[in-house]
Amino acid sequence: MKNLNHLIIAALLATVISVFAAKTTRAQDPAKVDAKHYKVEVENAQVRVLRVNYGPKEKSVMHRHPAGVAISLTDTHGKFTLSGGKAEERRFKAGEARWLPAESHLPESLSNKPFEVILVELKGGKEAAKSASASADDAVKADAKRYKVEFENAQVRVLRVNVGPHEKSPMHGHPANVVIFLTDGHVKFTLPDGKTEEAKAKAGQILWGEQVKHASENLGDKPVEVVVVELKAN
């Protein structure tokens, strides 16, 4: 009986701790505690994508982000005060993509100009996207001229894609992904069954993509540059 009571108490404590942790996480959600600077653009079982906009010298409040990928649409210079009190200055160049570990911080812009960042927060878990198997269909293998790996880890592979005016890319595959346009673009995608789809996007626009295989063509008269955050199975 005594052992049973101990088990019941332990289970209750675990439940209380879990509920408290969940409430604490929600209380530190940047989209809730600082809706002025953090807007949700895309959210599903795999990711949440935030558009981050700060005016000159603007400051946020303490909040938390899970691990993810930041893509800076402008030059960025900010001070980040961490939960332990330590402060760090960080700089991004326009178009730069960077891996960010999970972190609690209070950001402050040190720039005299506005800045804009796209933040792809990873959710993970059992519902995480399934990766396409490495094969000849892999975009980097199928078209190494246009698809370059920016960085890769156990959770994501980040590609920088540059396609010249009216250039075509051969048939290739992607796992589930987030696409961030760094330039305006008008692209045609041809699927394996011959069907075609067109996408027009402005610089800074975000597109969510399920696992896919396609060929692509830049229909515009100017180069198109995008960053593709490919998700891996967890």
Tag the structure with descriptive keywords.
2 domains; five-stranded antiparallel sheet; Jelly Rolls; 18 strands; 15% helix; elongated; mainly beta; 234 residues
Task: Characterise this structure.
The chain has 2 domains: 29-122, Jelly Rolls (Sandwich); 139-231, Jelly Rolls (Sandwich), CATH 2.60.120. The protein has a 5-stranded antiparallel sheet. Strands 10-11-18-13-16 form a 5-stranded antiparallel sheet. Strands 3-8-5-6 form a 4-stranded antiparallel sheet, with no helix packed on it. By secondary structure, the chain is mainly beta. The protein has helices spanning 2-27, 30-33, 139-142; strands at 38-43, 47-54, 63-65, 68-72, 76-82, 87-92, 97-100, 103-109, 115-122, 147-152, 156-163, 168-174, 177-181, 185-190, 196-201, 206-209, 212-218, 224-231.
Counted up, domains total: 2
* Topology pattern, helix = H, strand = E: HHEEEEEEEEEHEEEEEEEEE
Q: Strands across the major sheet, in which order?
A: 1-2-9-4-7
What ranges have pLDDT less than 50 throughout 5 or more consecutive residues? Answer: 6-25, 126-134
The CATH architecture designation of the largest domain is Sandwich
Strand content: over 45%
Number of helices: 3
CATH fold descriptor of the largest domain: Jelly Rolls
What Rg is obtained from the alpha carbons, in whole angstroms?
A: 21 Å
How far is it from the N-terminal to the C-terminal residue, by CA? 40 Å
The counted number of beta strands is: 18
Structural class: mainly beta
CATH superfamily of the largest domain: Jelly Rolls
**CATH class division of the largest domain:** Mainly Beta
Q: Quick check: average pLDDT? A: 88
Overall form: elongated
Helix content: 10-25%
Largest sheet: 5 strands, antiparallel
